[in-house]
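Hey,
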Amino acid sequence: MRILTSIIAAVLASPTLASSFDRPIPQAQSATAEFWFAIGSIALIAALVLVQRLVART
């Protein structure tokens, strides 16, 4: 049974059955996505500044 499983696995894994890889095409970001990314970046920087000030106090 192990030999049969090995043969089936070797046949199914052969490169002739594999499809070629098509690279994905990146999509452009919308203005809304860029806006929310900017808001998130500013909020992250503000949170890091607040944490730094809190840690420096103790």
